[in-house]
């Protein structure tokens, strides 16, 4: 009880029995009543009871004391809550600063998503138990990476390991390719089934609102997500480009601790997502630039190859037409690429990470411009191809020797069935080799998933025939009718001169080329060439 004789416990000095809440090491509070009231009495229910008794029996001012005491305690609780919230915000802000600093030099999407999920799950920050990163492409969201434990036992092991090594957020943010691929492999089965239409819920709502959302057990979501999360609530955070294009989403949950997410944490998630979106868009832009550079380099290589091929052609008229068409086909895009690169170079800071890639694009574009100028000069020259007797069988065997390894890597098996002792044909050896090479290359490229390539030869009605047949998907009718037109191509990189050139070569040798195709079963190209007649042939003709 609070009453001790004529007094109250909170007024008596130097009596150990006066308060059961005073610990032995707190003996100084027995004589220090003022601090005893602050540290012990203010939270003691006996004090309130005493004050109420005093208010009823003596002086109503004690009733005011009770109200003031309750208000003070209420404010103290609110203040403590505010301090705790401020401390959490400070920790989150610290993680955000470290994440932002860590992402600045990064151009690799794997590293960016690794650091992002570490920041979302780090104990010093938002501290989610588990995180999934989904990337957007062609109207779909697909699971790309995940981080966190699969079970309570694994979670304890992870947390103990972090504590034992005394790892900081900065330590955890250091990219580890080993950990990345280990985590990716661990979640492989889950990531593979995370394949959603961008209009599926909750993603439709997520990208429409543009803010982080909390998805509960009763919300309408994809069956795949519901089967995985069951009744566990989770947060979804959108990732956008600077133009508002969806880049992906991050899914976060506390499936082990069950901790609810506060309003402040939702706002913090959105700030984190902004940093991640900026870095991710930069990485994707870098990947696109690398791809464009590769295309330019390949185009430059193909252009030189075509230049060498054209130099082997005999007819000045054909060469002139080809050069004019090439200039028309390449000039506008090359000028546009070079111009755009120059504009970007002026706008981007010299120390920007993209500067060297812009320089590379500009350099390749300038190379293409110079090559086109060389074509113009070549129009003014003449090239006469020399003719000789050619062993067609030898040409095919040499070609297949060269192509067999490439075909094997692509899963294509080359089968030869060549007639023996074929008569010779008259023409340019290089041109005929190039012609058949174009046809073989097309057949191999038509079977990216592997197949069989049959090459056969024979003699019929004064002509040697060569048959090249593949087991690819075939060619659509609209492509078939344009097949031998110059500069027509269905490839990303290609001049469209291959089949046109082959047809020109065969016809100049007095032969013919035909293509037959059946969708789903492949294509067959048949080349017919007049052979050089010997005395025996001439006698047979005369008779």
Q: What does this 3D model show about the protein?
A:
- The protein has about 550 residues and is α+β, with helices and mostly antiparallel strands.
- It folds into four domains: about 5-60, no CATH class; about 90-285, 2-Layer Sandwich (Beta-Lactamase), CATH 3.30.450.40; about 315-380; about 390-540, 2-Layer Sandwich (Heat Shock Protein 90), CATH 3.30.565.
- The protein is built from 18 helices and 15 strands.
- It has helices at about 35-40, 45-55, 60-105, 110-120, 150-165, 170, 175-185, 190-195, 205-210, 225-230, 265-310, 315-345, 355-380, 390-410, 430-445, 475-480, 500-510, 535-540, and strands at about 5, 5-10, 130-135, 140-145, 195, 215, 235-240, 245-255, 390, 410-415, 425, 450-460, 465-470, 510-520, 520-530.
- The strands form four sheets. It has a six-stranded antiparallel beta sheet with strand order 5-4-3-8-7-6, with helices on both faces.
- The chain is elongated.
- The termini are far apart.
- The relative contact order is 0.06.
- Residues about 375-385, about 490-495 and about 540-543 have low confidence and may be disordered.
């Amino acid at each position: 009880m609070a009453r001790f004789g004529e007094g109250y416990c909170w007024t008596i000095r130097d009596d150990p029995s006066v308060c059961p809440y005073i610990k032995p090491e707190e003996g100084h509070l027995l004589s220090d009543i003022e601090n005893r009231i602050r540290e012990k009495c203010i939270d003691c229910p006996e004090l309130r009871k005493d004050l109420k008794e005093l208010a009823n029996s003596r002086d109503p001012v004690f009733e005011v004391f009770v109200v003031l005491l309750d208000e003070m305690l209420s404010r103290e609780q609110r203040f403590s809550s505010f301090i705790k919230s401020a401390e959490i915000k400070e920790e989150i802000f610290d993680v955000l600063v470290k994440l932002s600093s860590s992402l600045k030099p990064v151009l690799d999407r794997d590293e960016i998503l690794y650091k992002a999920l570490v920041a979302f799950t780090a104990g010093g920050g938002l501290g989610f138990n588990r995180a999934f990163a989904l990337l957007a492409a062609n109207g779909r969201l697909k699971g790309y990476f995940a981080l966190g434990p699969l079970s309570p036992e694994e979670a304890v092991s992870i947390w103990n390991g972090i504590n034992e090594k005394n790892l900081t957020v900065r330590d955890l943010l250091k990219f580890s390719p080993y950990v990345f691929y280990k985590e990716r492999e661990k979640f492989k089965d889950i990531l593979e089934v995370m394949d959603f239409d961008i209009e599926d819920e909750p993603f439709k709502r997520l990208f429409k609102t543009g803010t982080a959302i909390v998805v509960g057990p009763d919300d309408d979501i994809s069956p795949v997500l519901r089967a995985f999360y069951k009744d566990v609530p989770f947060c979804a955070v959108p990732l956008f480009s600077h133009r508002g294009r969806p880049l992906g989403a991050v899914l976060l949950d506390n499936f082990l601790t069950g901790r609810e997410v506060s309003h402040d944490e939702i706002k913090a998630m959105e700030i984190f997502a902004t940093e991640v979106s900026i870095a991710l868009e930069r990485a994707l832009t870098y990947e696109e630039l690398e791809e464009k550079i590769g295309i330019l380099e390949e185009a430059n290589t193909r252009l030189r190859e075509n230049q060498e091929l054209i130099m082997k052609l005999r007819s000045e008229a054909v060469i002139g037409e080809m050069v004019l068409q090439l200039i028309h086909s390449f000039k506008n895009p090359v000028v546009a690429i070079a111009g755009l690169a120059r504009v970007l170079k002026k706008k981007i800071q010299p120390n920007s990470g993209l500067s060297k890639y812009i320089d590379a694009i500009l350099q390749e574009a300038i190379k293409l411009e110079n090559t086109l100028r060389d074509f113009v000069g070549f129009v003014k020259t003449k090239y006469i191809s020399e003719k000789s007797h050619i062993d067609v069988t030898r040409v095919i065997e040499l070609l297949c020797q060269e192509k067999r390894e490439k075909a094997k890597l692509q899963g294509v098996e080359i089968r030869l069935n060549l007639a023996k002792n074929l008569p010779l044909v008259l023409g340019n050896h290089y041109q005929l080799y190039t012609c058949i090479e174009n046809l073989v290359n097309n057949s191999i490229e038509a079977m990216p998933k592997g197949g069989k390539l049959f090459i056969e030869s024979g003699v019929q009605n004064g002509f040697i025939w060569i048959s090249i047949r593949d087991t690819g998907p075939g060619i659509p009718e609209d492509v078939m009718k344009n097949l031998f037109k110059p500069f027509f191509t269905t490839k990303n990189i290609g001049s469209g001169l291959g089949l046109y050139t082959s047809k020109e070569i065969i016809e100049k040798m007095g032969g013919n080329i035909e293509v037959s195709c059946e969708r789903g079963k492949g294509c067959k190209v048949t080349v017919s060439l007049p052979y050089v007649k010997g005395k025996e042939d001439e006698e047979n003709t005369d008779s």
